[in-house]
Amino acid sequence: MENKTGKYFKYAIGEIILVVIGILxxxxxxxxxxxxxxxxxxxxxxxxxxxxxxxxxxxxDSINLDLLKVTHKMELLFSMFKEENSTDNIKSLxxxxxxxxxxxxxxxxxxxxxxxxxxxxxxxxxSNKLKKLLFQWTRFFNQMKETEEQMEETSKDIxxxxxxxxxLRNVDATAKTFNxxxxxxxxxxxxxxxxxxxxxxxxxxxxxxxxxxAQFAISKQLISKILEETSAE
Length: 233
Hints:
6 helices; 0% strand; rod-shaped; mainly alpha
């Protein structure tokens, strides 16, 4: 009986060990499978981020060209301020003023990044460098939005000033999209070039344009680093 009990005990121990081994193997296989799926999902996420920031970079290059054009026109207008101006400059002045009323704004996509934040996927990224870059991007992007709001505000200030102190119709008449004649009233915008308040409005927007130009350069550097971290090996 003692021999039989010992055999049964050893058999039970063996069975328990086999069950434990089976469970451990199953857990390991499950872990491997989950790791594989997480790896696949991360590759999809990286590809989506890369595509989104590639598109953002293309948009940035396009908007930056518009920004440079407006900045050039602003600097040209800035140089026209002086005590005396010939009436020959009226048409060219109206045309220049019309070209600086636009505010080139960049609206990069953040759909993939926002989805990562809301789903908690951002914390699951393996690359700490990438997570840091995306955090820097979000913080810097918020700063850029504030600058763009300032730019739109400066344009509004110039238009409001024109409505009271100049001729907005004369400015609009120089645009190809409009099909009407300049104002028939005895008014022109030449006197604005001797107006210190108007000069200050132009200075204000020109300052914001240069600030935006610098921010675009930093944005391009950040995007390039993000693209490098999200590119397929």
